[in-house]
Amino acid sequence: MIVSALDTLTSIISGLVIFSVLGALSFEMGLDMKDVVKSGPGLAFVAYPEALSRLPLPHLWSVLFFLMLFILGLDSEFAILENIVTSLSDEIHCLRKHKLKVTIAVGAAFFLFGLPVVTRGGQYIFEILDYYGGSISLVFIAVVECIAISWIYGYENFSSDINFMLSKNMGIYWRITWKFTAPLTLLFIAIYSLVIHTPLQYGAYQFPNWTDVVGWAIVFVVISQIIVWALFHVIRSCKQECCKCLEAVFAPDKDWGPKDPIVREEWRVYKRNLKVHNFELEHVYITNL
């Protein structure tokens, strides 16, 4: 809760700084605020440096600011790599004994994939990947994650896991937010993004029509992974009756849970002692412990 509150507060402060600087630049340049700088990297590399240049010791603040950007980039890289390495380890169990090697291999692969972005035309490649792969696709993925956590894994299971780790019960606010507010809001954003979609443009440069085709192909490839792999697991598990098939698909692996053996046993006992399981799939989860 503290981290979330600080993150929200930081975002609010950043927004205040951005718009105050953009307002000053708009006044000095005689332009509308929307024409001063576009969203994206321009905010970090134009608006903030301009604000820092007006402070005492601007060089010091600039060094600290770009050092912070570098650290934030590393932090984001940690999360991305951990997500991919964990997913690979869950699917290919033999990789769990070689986590360091897998991490290095994934990092090296992404380094090679990122080299085209630092070429002379890299900014245009970045805009395509950011707009189609980092905006539209992520919203749909977030919707599916909300549904998977709150409705398939189940709110009761998720909140009981938090209660086990933090000894804190989740209130009605979190139940409503996780089950309804978050997925519906994200779904609205996704649909609205499709309705107002216009061909990609970077500054005065209008991307050719074929880039729109490539961009939507990226979106399709990303989103289709959810459907394809879901169908793959359903087909692979459908050796029994349909009901048993769904149970096998939605039930976690037997090694799911805390890694520490002592904590794991405490967690399994805690789960078995739960008396309220309101959703059928949650019951499937509990009975497979």
Automatic annotation (TrEMBL):
GO molecular function: amino acid:sodium symporter activity; L-amino acid transmembrane transporter activity; metal ion binding
TM ranges: 12-31, 60-81, 102-119, 131-155, 176-195, 215-235
Function: Unusual broad substrate spectrum amino acid:sodium cotransporter that promotes absorption of the D isomers of essential amino acids. Neutral amino acids are the preferred substrates, especially methionine and phenylalanine.
Any one Gene Ontology cellular component term annotated for this protein: plasma membrane
Alphabetical GO biological process terms: amino acid import across plasma membrane
Protein family according to the UniProt entry: Belongs to the sodium:neurotransmitter symporter (SNF) (TC 2.A.22) family.
Residues annotated as binding Na(+): L72, D75, S76
Residues in the signal sequence: none
Record protein name field: Sodium-dependent nutrient amino acid transporter 1
Main location class: membrane
Keywords carried by this UniProt record: Amino-acid transport, Glycoprotein, Ion transport, Membrane, Metal-binding, Sodium, Sodium transport, Symport, Transmembrane, Transmembrane helix, Transport
